[in-house]
Design brief:
Strand content: 15-25%
Shape: elongated
Helix content: 25-40%
Strand order of the largest sheet: 3-2-1-4-6-5
Length: about 425
Amino acid sequence: MNLLSPALLDAASVHPVMVGFSGGLDSTVLLHLLAQASGRAAGSVRAVHVHHGLQAQADAWAEHCHQVCAGWGIALQVIHVDVRRDDGDGLEAAARTARHAAFQTCLQAGEWLALAHHQDDQAETFLLRALRGSGVDGLAAMRPLRAFGHGQLWRPLLEVPRAALEAHARHHRLHWIEDPSNQHDEVDRNFLRLQLMPLLRQRWPHAATALARSAGLAAQASDLLASQDDAALQSCTDASGALRIDALGALPDTAQARVLRRWVQQQGLPPLPGNGVRVIQQQLLSAGHDQPAEFRWQHARIRRWRGQLHVVPVLSPWPVGWQQSWQGDVPALLPDGGVLTLQGADRLDRPLLLRQRRGGERIHLPQRTHRHALKQCLQQSEVPPWLRPHLPLLCDGDDVLAAGDRIVSGTLQHWLQAHGARLHWQPPHPSN
């Protein structure tokens, strides 16, 4: 049996490939197939072994991988990772997260990461997601090729049953590692593999093939819906990437749900929890115009403001009481990562004080006869509420001369115009 189709090999032949090599049966067969593939340039395949440190034999497994790769003339990189044992999703999920993070770190631009998931893995993934109540996107399970890090994640064996991999390994007398943790059926995937799938095959011998085919059909439907989602999302977003509530509200509820999930994905946020769409629809979309409605999950925040949904970045707080003298001759590096600069002039006439808002400040605006509450000025401005605490105040004693570059007093505005100068405030970037 030709395990790797010629079409897949042709598609991958122009890209360097990094194989995720655990030393187990599946990845050993994949590495052997790629190492023996005709037409591949020398050195275009390399391997990465992630050392989780979870098993007593972990060092011996890494040494086994070194020996296999040396025998096939393939460069091997071993990466040690720390797996978070206190992760709420369980040890298996934590190990997978650490492994993928390691792959993403070492994947080079334009390189393809090849993983050895096969048809039986696809069937198990489909079942697991069905049992969790996933929709069509989740039931699409694993894709043969998708964007990943600086390159692509490639699964060339998704249509190949595990029995074919084992037959290939035995025919070529390959040696592989048996991970004893794969026999522990308290892990959901292992339970499916060890208990449920053999039972299903007794009644339906081609159960894995049928389930994997269903995953493929779900992927086709998901791709079709995704193109519709992108068109709907484009009609609902403005130039800043905020989501217009009026346009979103005009969509059917099911389309709203898909657009919200697509928007969250494009914004680089973690997936919405199960009740996330419902909460946003009921609490944010229906909130009053001035009501500061907000939805939070994990480290993410979405807030309704001025008829739009905005992603609220996680910003570093300022130290209490922070202040510094500044004359504009060098950029002011603010404690949250923001920067204030004076452009068009060498420096101010004298040093002024930079500090954070404390509340109750007032400012004398240009062409006004009395002072205005800074809080009111900010509410009327285009500065989002989550950025207002990060605006640096430029003060002369107790007099507020400017809030960043967004609100400038008459006195400072006159000086800036006379010197052909301006203030420029660069807001802080989200913290990791």
